[in-house]
Write a structure and sequence with these properties.
By secondary structure, the protein is α/β, with parallel strands linked by helices. It has eight helices and ten strands. The longest helix is centred in the first third of the chain and has 17 residues.
C-alpha cells in the first residue's frame, strides 16, 4: 500500500498528465486485508498504483473503476459483501481529474459573457481573439475575472492548437465573428478531439463550415460531435442568455446530464 507522500505524488502526476482516474479507498472492512484506509488509484486505461493485498479484490476494483469512470459520477460506494469470492468491505470510489478547461474562440459579447460565467463555475478559461482590444485585461479586471487567460491570436489555428492541447478534459466554444475564423478554429480543434466542441451561428452558417471541413477530409464521426448551433434551447436572446445556454450544454455534456427539466417527473 502506498504511503501518503507516494499517493500525493501519484495524484499529482495524474493531474499533470491530464488523465482521469479513480481513487479507491477501503472505508470499512471485517478482515485484516483489505485494511481500512488502504488506497489505490486506477487510471481510465486500467493502469493501477497500489493495491489491497488480495488479487481477486484488486481485479474487481479495476473493473468497477472503469464502470465508475465511464458513468461520470463524482463518487460512489460499493459493498463487496454482496459479491461472491470477495472479502467483505465497503469501498469508496472518487474521481480524480484536472479542473475543467474551456477554450473560447471569439471575445465578442457572447464570448466575453461565456468566459465570465465559466470562470465563476470553476472552469479554467482561455479566451482568444485576433483583436487585441477584445482581450485587453482592462475588460476583465474584476477579482472573479483575473483567472481568465487572455490570448491574442496572430494565427487562429496556431492559437487554438496551443490552447486545446491534447483535448482531454477540454471544452471548446467557437463563437467568432465570421466563416473564415470559424473554419480555422474548427480545423485546429478537430485534430485535438476535445471532450466537447460547439460552434455558434445559424444552421445555414454552421452547415457551410461543417461541409467545408468534410471536403477537407475531416472524420465524419468527429463532425457529428460538433454541437452546431451551440447551446441548449432556452429561448436565449441577449448575449448573456446565449452564453448561459452554451455553458449549460457544456456542463450537461461533462456530467452526462440530459438538459431536461428536473421537474418533469411531476408531469408523468
Amino acid at each position: 500500500m502506498p504511503n501518503s507522500t507516494e499517493l500525493t505524488n501519484r495524484i499529482g502526476q495524474i493531474l499533470d498528465r491530464g488523465r482521469t482516474a479513480a481513487l479507491v479507498t477501503v472505508v470499512e472492512s471485517s478482515m485484516a486485508k483489505p485494511a481500512v484506509g488502504a488506497k489505490m488509484t486506477v487510471l481510465d486505461d486500467g493502469e493501477t498504483f497500489g493495491g489491497f493485498g488480495d488479487p481477486t479484490l484488486d481485479e474487481y476494483v479495476v473493473r468497477e473503476s472503469q464502470v465508475f469512470l465511464s458513468s461520470r459520477e463524482a463518487s460512489k460506494v460499493l459493498h463487496t459483501a454482496e459479491t461472491e469470492a470477495l472479502p467483505a468491505a465497503k469501498i469508496l470510489f472518487e474521481r480524480i481529474e484536472a479542473e475543467p478547461q474551456l477554450v473560447i474562440a471569439g471575445a465578442g459579447h457572447v464570448g466575453a459573457a461565456l468566459a465570465r460565467f465559466a470562470a465563476i463555475a470553476g472552469f479554467r478559461v482561455t479566451l482568444i481573439d485576433d483583436r487585441s482590444e477584445f482581450v485587453d485585461r482592462n475588460r476583465f479586471s474584476s477579482a472573479r475575472e483575473e483567472s481568465i487567460e487572455l490570448e491574442k491570436a496572430d494565427d487562429w489555428q496556431e492559437a487554438m492548437r496551443d490552447a486545446v492541447g491534447k483535448g482531454r478534459g477540454v471544452a471548446v466554444a467557437i463563437v467568432t465573428r465570421g466563416h473564415k475564423q470559424d473554419e480555422e478554429c474548427l480545423r485546429a480543434t478537430l485534430i485535438a478531439k476535445p471532450d466537447y466542441v460547439g460552434m455558434i451561428g445559424s444552421k445555414r452558417r454552421t452547415n457551410i463550415v461543417l461541409e467545408k471541413m468534410r471536403e477537407e477530409g475531416a472524420e465524419e464521426n468527429e463532425l457529428k460531435r460538433v454541437r452546431a448551433p451551440i447551446g441548449l434551447d432556452i429561448g436565449a436572446v441577449s448575449p448573456e442568455e446565449v452564453a448561459l445556454a452554451i455553458l449549460a450544454e457544456i456542463v450537461a455534456e461533462r456530467h452526462g446530464g440530459t438538459g431536461a427539466p428536473l421537474s418533469s417527473w411531476r408531469r408523468l
